[in-house]
Amino acid sequence: xxxxxxxxxxxxxxxxxxxxxxxxxxxxxxxxxxxxxxxxxxxxxxxxxxxxxxxxxxxxxxxxxxxxxxxxxxxxxxxxxxxxxxxxxxxxxxxxxxxxxxxxxxxxxxxxxxxxxxxxxxxxxxxxxxxxxxxxxxxxxxxxxxxxxxxxxxxxxxxxxxxxxxxxxxxxxxxxxxxxxxxxxxxxxxxxxxxxxxxxxxxxxxxxxxxxxxxxxxxxxxxxxxxxxxxxxxxxxxxxxxxxxxxxxxxxxxxxxxxxxxxxxxxxxxxxxxxxxxxxxxxxxxxxxxxxxxxxxxxxxxxxxxxxxxxxxxxxxxxxxxxxxxxxxxxxxxxxxxxxxxxxxxxxxxxxxxxxxxxxxxxxxxxxxxxxxxxxxxxxxxxxxxxxxxxxxxxxxxxxxxxxxxxxxxxxxxxxxxxxxxxxxxxxxxxxxxxxxxxxxxxxxxxxxxxxxxxxxxxxxxxxxxxxxxxxxxxxxxxxx
Length: 481
Ligand SMILES: *Cc1c(COP(=O)(O)O)cnc(C)c1O
Known about the structure:
The chain is α/β, with parallel strands linked by helices. 43% of the residues lie in helices and 12% in strands. The protein folds into two domains: 75 residues; 264 residues, Aspartate Aminotransferase, domain 2 (3-Layer(aba) Sandwich), CATH 3.40.640.10. The strands form two sheets. It has a seven-stranded mixed sheet with strand order 1-7-6-5-4-2-3, sandwiched between helices. The site of pyridoxal-5'-phosphate has 14 residues, from helix 7. Pyridoxal-5'-phosphate binds next to helix 7.
């Protein structure tokens, strides 16, 4: 029998599950005692992989044990409470279980009829979040995506085909004028990839300058649109960012929305990370204007602490997605056609489709909107605490946002980017915390620390302050020497 090659006996399964649970539980307990970042040595990793022979396969328990143990030694521990990094949170426990169930039952969400409960669960999530963002739940539509990059590309395609439906059959070369779209200089680079992927090319993305506060300059936007029109270009889309990746800044969504409406352009809001603020009553106002968006990108795998691989695209235009993605095949199940349901495969870029929404649903159904508001409020308070402690310890905060992303620089010394980088490297090398550097507005270097973990508490902020202070002392003596 070959079955045993992929499915161990019940006894062995039981031992493997126990090993898995033991490793996972140990990680929850130990993660804080591990160095946040590994030492990097590619040759070591290749030698390590050589110990797993593909010609003479090892025992399951040994491979599982050794590989998991090694992975714990060779990654930046984004679940570490002193990881003040990019928006990679510690995963919510019910989300982890969701991924485990998804892998075990392996539902195929391409066709509604293959996994009706799973598809309905995802639709429930789409409508619930559309409602939270203020889109009409009745007309809103959307899909779960691999992440924000896929959602942003989807937005670009929706805007393009809303304006030029002919593109669907005849391609972008059928557009008489050259299409252009607008995003701020601080927007996410996924729009550059989207421009290339959609066949528009890099030059189609117009970079709108930002104000001193790093928000899109809506007057400049208005002027650029006029100028472009004068030169024979065809604007079709404006992107506002709600929570920039670098500095957590929210573009003036109301003003941008007005420009979009006046020029009859699609208005997309990239709220991949910052969108979660909509769940916190006292933060909601920072997203004001998002309810007027034609479409929204939101990533549950960022500020909602869902394990990686959970993005969301939302739109107020009910038929925008099916216009692009509907196709018919001889082999897909047809049961769905007799019901008033939407088959996900005619509704998004993906074909075979994983149950992305389960990890979000299980977490939300056991934490609730209120629970999430409390978690996000805590993270926001930790951001305020970090700002306060930095200011009191000789650092200046150089970004303005209510979200917990803190960009800072010494208050009594001018550091260039190289100095900031040296400081950031030293923090990372200490193993006690992880931060990064950022060039704000393309010209102002700073250190960047973001509260991204729901387990980060005041003691972890203190750890970061101690490390920063040591690093700074070290750097100053070295420079003086
Ligand atoms: C992270 C991020 C993205 C990209 O999302 P992925 O899920 O990483 O693909 C897009 N926009 C913003 C503002 C982001 O922060």
